[in-house]
Design a protein that fits this description.
CATH topology of the largest domain: TIM Barrel
Bound molecules: pyridoxal-5'-phosphate
Number of helices: 12
Oligomer: single chain
Largest sheet: 9 strands, mixed
Helix content: 25-40%
Radius of gyration: 23 Å
CATH architecture of the largest domain: Alpha-Beta Barrel
Length: 420
C-alpha cells in the first residue's frame, strides 16, 4: 500500500504530480511519500502490539535520510546503526540515545568510544574480541555498556547470497555452538552488562520459516545461558522481512510475522527488540527518471534513461527487479530493455520487459525504491549524487541536494609533486 497513484493520468506522490517535482528539481530524483512512510511505520508497530514488550530500532542503513529518520522518531522508533556516521544521523534526527542499537562486524575503537560517550542503549557485539575491546574502553571511560551478543544461527534465509547473513560461512555474529561460553565470559567482564542475544539472518526474506527456525534455535540458546546462571532480559530478533517488488508477488505481512514471534517467544520473558529496514521504507519511495533516448537494438529496443546503477544499485548488485512505470502513460506498451548511461553492462535495469511505451523526454519511475536506494548512490562516471524529495500532502521539499560534479571535484587536489 502506498500513496503513489495516477490522478487524471499523471502519476502523483500524495497530492503532488511528479512532473512538478521533475520540473523544479530535475531528474533523476528520489521521491518519498511521508504518508506511506508513516503508514508502514504504524502498521509494523501496531502489529507488534500483541507482544508484551517490544522495541523497534529502524535499520538506518535502508534509508538514512534525515527527514525520514525524523518521521520515524516521531512514531516512536529508535535506530539500528552500523557506523558512527549513522549514529550521528540518528542523534541529529532527535532519536533518544537509549533507543539506539549499534550493529556491525567492524566497529572501530573510536566508534565504540563515541557510542559510549553519547550513551546508546545497546551494543550488538559480533565477536568476543569486540566485547573485550569495548569493555576496556568502557572501564577507561567509567561506563558500563549494555550489550547483546550476535549469534550466527546457521540458518539459510533463502534470499540472495549477497544479503544472506545467518549462515555459518557468513562473517556475522559468533558461531552458534560457541555462543554460550562467549556470553558467559563476557558477562563476567567488567565494563559490560550482557543482557541479550541478537540475530539477523538476512534481508528481503520471502518466507517466515527461516526466521521461525532461527528464533527457535536462539531461544533454546537463551534458556541454556540462563541455565548457566546468566541474565538474559532482552532478545534482539533483527530485521529482514521482504517486500514485493513485482506487482502480484505476495510477502509475509507484519501481522503474520508478529503472530509467529508471539508463538515462538511466548515463554521467553524478555523485552523483544526488532530492527526492520526495508519493510518500513521500501514502498515509501520511487526513483524518477527521464528517458534520454530510445535506441534500436539487435533485439528489443534500448530505453536509455538518465538514472543509472550509481543512483539505484540493486539491479546491478542483486539482479533485483523494480517495477517501471511511465509518469503519463498513454495506454500503449512495448517490450524493451531499460539501461542507464554508465559505461559498463551491469548498468542494466531490465531486459526484454513489457513496459509502458515511452519515448525521448518522457518521465518514468522505478517503484519500491525507498530502501537501499539513495543510500547506496555514488558518483561513478562523475555523475552527480542523486537528490531526494519528500512529499507530505500537497507540500513537498528537497530533503537531500543534488551534489554536482563540480562540488565533488572541489574536494580533489593535484599535489605539489605533480605541479611542475
Ligand atoms: C540490514 C540489517 C537490518 C535490516 O534489514 P532489512 O532487511 O532491511 O529489514 C537489521 N539488522 C541488521 C543487523 C542489519 O544488518
Amino acid at each position: 500500500m502506498d500513496h503513489f497513484h495516477y490522478v487524471d493520468g499523471v502519476l502523483s506522490a500524495e497530492d503532488v504530480p511528479l512532473p512538478a517535482i521533475a520540473a523544479a528539481v530535475g531528474t533523476p530524483v528520489y521521491v518519498y511519500s511521508r504518508a506511506t512512510l508513516t503508514r508502514h511505520a504504524r502498521v509494523f508497530r501496531d502489529a507488534l502490539g500483541i507482544l508484551p514488550a517490544a522495541r523497534i530500532a529502524f535499520a538506518v542503513k535502508s534509508n538514512p535520510n534525515l527527514a525520514v529518520l525524523r518521521v520515524l522518531a516521531a512514531e516512536g522508533y529508535g535506530a539500528d546503526v552500523v557506523s558512527v556516521g549513522e549514529l550521528e544521523r540518528a542523534l541529529a534526527a532527535g532519536m533518544d540515545p537509549e533507543a539506539i542499537v549499534f550493529s556491525g562486524v567492524g566497529k572501530t575503537a573510536a566508534e565504540l568510544a563515541r557510542a559510549l560517550e553519547v550513551g546508546i542503549g545497546q551494543f550488538n557485539l559480533e565477536s568476543e574480541e569486540e566485547g573485550l575491546e569495548l569493555a576496556e574502553i568502557a572501564v577507561r571511560m567509567g561506563k558500563v555498556a549494555a550489550c547483546a551478543l550476535r549469534v550466527n544461527p546457521d540458518v539459510d534465509a533463502g534470499t540472495h547470497g549477497k544479503i544472506s547473513t545467518g549462515k555459518a560461512e557468513n562473517k556475522f555474529g559468533v558461531p552458534f555452538d560457541r555462543a554460550a561460553a562467549i556470553y558467559g565470559r563476557l558477562a563476567q567482564t567488567p565494563g559490560l552488562a550482557m543482557r541479550a542475544l541478537a540475530l539477523h539472518i538476512g534481508s528481503q526474506l520471502s518466507s517466515l520459516d527461516p526466521l521461525e527456525a532461527a528464533f527457535t534455535k536462539v531461544g533454546g540458546l537463551m534458556h541454556a545461558i540462563r541455565g548457566a546462571g546468566h541474565a538474559v532480559t532482552h532478545m534482539d530478533l533483527g530485521g529482514g522481512i521482504g517486500v514485493p517488488y513485482k506487482t502480484g508477488d505476495v510477502f509475509p505481512q507484519p501481522a503474520e510475522y508478529a503472530a509467529m514471534v508471539a508463538r515462538v517467544t511466548g515463554n521467553w520473558g524478555v523485552t523483544l527488540m526488532f530492527e526492520p529496514g526495508r519493510v518500513i521504507t521500501g514502498n515509501t519511495g520511487v526513483l524518477m527518471t527521464e528517458v534520454v533516448r530510445v535506441k534500436e537494438g539487435a533485439g528489443a529496443p534500448w530505453v536509455v534513461i538518465d538514472a543509472a546503477m550509481n543512483d539505484l544499485a540493486r539491479p546491478a548488485l542483486y539482479d533485483a527487479w523494480h517495477d517501471f512505470a511511465a509518469v503519463q502513460p498513454d495506454g500503449e506498451r512495448f517490450v524493451a530493455n531499460i539501461v542507464g548511461p554508465i559505461c559498463e553492462s551491469s548498468d542494466t535495469f531490465a531486459m526484454a520487459r513489457d513496459i509502458d511505451l515511452v519515448k525521448r523526454g518522457d518521465l518514468a519511475v522505478f517503484r519500491t525504491a525507498g530502501a537501499y536506494g539513495a543510500t547506496m548512490a555514488n558518483t561513478y562516471n562523475s555523475r552527480p549524487l542523486v537528490p531526494e524529495v519528500m512529499v507530505d500532502g500537497e507540500k513537498w521539499a528537497v530533503v537531500a541536494d543534488r551534489i554536482d560534479p563540480a562540488t565533488i571535484l572541489a574536494a580533489e587536489r593535484v599535489p605539489d609533486f605533480l605541479a611542475g
